[in-house]
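Weekly structure sync, notes
Attendees: PL (lead), two postdocs, one rotation student
Agenda item 3: pending single-chain targets
PL asked that the sequence for the first pending target be pasted directly into the notes so everyone works from the same version. It is reproduced below exactly as submitted, 99 residues in total.
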Amino acid sequence: MKPTAPADATRHRGERFSRLSRIIDCNYQAPFYADYGGPCGNVPGPSFRNISRDYFRNEARYNFVTEAALFVLIMATAALAIAISAVAAIHFLHVLGYL
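Predicted structure, written out during the meeting:
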């Protein structure tokens, strides 16, 4: 723990930085995590397996559906562009007399 800076510290007249900066209170006390299942408490926290199982059961399903829909939309757009360009290339070759 860091000591607190005294509020009534004397400052020299020529110190420009000390006039611009405020006095900071560094007397921080960490909260007690016994109620939250932290390392000091007797309550065990949720395991990584339970956290990931809950995530894949609830949240990942909706994310997967959204990403799959966007993937199908992008693939349909790309396939349409490729098909149109293939038709244009065949028509171009037909006009030149190669087909």
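Discussion points:
- Helices lie at 16-20, 48-96.
- The two ends are 83 Å apart (CA to CA).
Action: rotation student to compare against the earlier draft before next sync.
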